[in-house]
Amino acid sequence: MTERTPALAPAGSTGAGPATAAPPDFAGALSAYAAGVTLVTIADGRDDIGTTVSAFCPVSLEPPLVLISLLAASYPAELLGTSPGDGTSPGDGPSPGDGTSPGDGTSPGDGADPADGGGPGGAAAGRFAVCLLAASQRMLAGRFAAAGRPNARRMLAEVPHRRGPLSGALIPDGGLAALECEVSRRIPAGDHLVLIARVLAVPYQAPSGDPLIRFRGRYPALR
Q: Is residue 51 part of a domain?
């Protein structure tokens, strides 16, 4: 009997086809993956938006890049999913040499006043902040995990915080570290939007502390 060689899927294809449903218990399997929890905040004009994100990972040190994944139908994805100035669909964002990087004349004093939520960067520039949450910030993570458009200014009203000088985004104190970022690439991925972002600055880094971890839908304490 002659053995048939299976057909190869096209380059870049998963071989599953675009309409393939997720395997049974796929979501449950993913919940067994323990991940650190971050808070992503965005300044949108006079509004401040925030969302809890566990799909975060470092990508590169040189150049400094990180990755976050947002639900494609969410408001944060809508804000960051369009290249600055194009008003169209997701695509490649600004490159490091496009004149939007620090030191190109865009100082914290340019643009809208950071105190009003506009900031020098904000969503219009594809900029946002990421706070790597500490174990003590479990309640804060829960607040921003709510569906809809959680208002960061209201959620952080009683929490010590600052506004990022490059992103205009609100950054809570007390985390393990905070980053200010600018989107450099947008990748539609199923029901999510993957953003690769260049790190512009590190507003702070705590000398010690335990991370906030998400596991099976909860935030368990480290033992």
A: yes
Number of domains in the chain: 1
CATH code of 152's domain = 2.30.110.10
Distances in Å between the alpha carbon of 195 and those of 106, 119, 136? 23, 21, 27
Half-sphere exposure of 177 (CA within 13 A, CB side): 9
Q: pTM of this prediction?
A: 0.75
- The pLDDT profile of the chain, 223 residues, written as one tens digit per residue, is 444 444 444 444 444 445 578 888 888 887 887 889 999 999 988 789 999 999 999 999 999 999 999 999 999 999 999 876 554 433 343 333 333 333 333 333 333 444 444 456 788 899 999 999 999 999 999 999 987 777 899 999 999 999 999 999 999 999 999 999 999 999 999 999 999 999 999 999 999 999 999 988 888 887 7
63 lies in a domain? yes
Structure tokens at 61: 């040190």
Q: How far apart are CA 35 and CA 196, in angstroms?
A: 18
Domain membership of residue 26 (yes or no) is no
28 in a structural domain: no
Buried b / exposed e along 71-92 (16+ C-beta atoms within 10 A):
ebebbbbbbbbbbbeeeeebee
